[in-house]
Amino acid sequence: MHCLFSDLRNLMGTTLMTLLATTFMAQLIYVVGVGGVHDSGMCLAISHSLQFLHLCLLCWLLVLCKDTLANLTTDSPVPATMTRRQMCLKFALVSLWAWGGPAVQVALSYYTGTRHPLPSMFKTNCWFIEKKLYLLFYGFPAMVLLCTCACLMVRARVRLTYSLSLETRPKHRAKLSKAKKIQVGLCSKLTFTLLTMDICGLAFVLTGHNVAWIGYNVIHSVQGLVMALCATCHSQVLSVYTRRHRRRRSSTRLLSKTSSLEDLDWSPLPSTV
Length: 273
What we know:
Keywords: Membrane, Transmembrane, Transmembrane helix. This is G-protein coupled receptors family 2 profile 2 domain-containing protein. By secondary structure, the chain is an all-alpha fold. It has one domain: Up-down Bundle (Rhopdopsin 7-helix transmembrane proteins).
């Protein structure tokens, strides 16, 4: 999708595609852990991999929410253009934080688990690390990141309402309102989905109730599909493709109509020199 549509080849589009790719990888590892794994080493690898990918997913979501809030300060309905060098430099710095921070968390979690013997992991699955490690190295950082994303979206809603109230041109206000609401709505839906899933997972680790367990399973099973649908619908990727396809078809139809000899004749005739 990133290769097909040039509209996504900016910083926000690249961030969104990275977020969706991370979600896809988390879904694959989640499916591997269904029903549990008999090998303890494999089970530990799955749990730490899910911890790493979920933290990366939340970090990329925070970057997307921050860029969405910053984009609301501009009067253009599209993200501000950057040079290729500026975009590569900023994306490299963001990637260092979004991939490096979770890697440090997972390394500390693994080091703590090997230095201090802890109780055995859950027998029914390999999706969670040990309770103390989960709360310290995933539960607390995840709630901080998600609450930050939620606060950014609340600020984005308030800033969007205020900026639209100051706009005096009706057509420009309608255009800005449609584009900005799509961006804010997308980030809000992604934040709500991940926040609900992590709350259910945290409730299961703390209490062990089956309701929280079922809620976590259901949301994690459909989160990839829900996030992909939100991204494709609210980013209007399909409508962009439809407009280009219609423009291409209309240009082809115009050329086919002008291929007759009558339309190619000079009318009126050019003046002789």
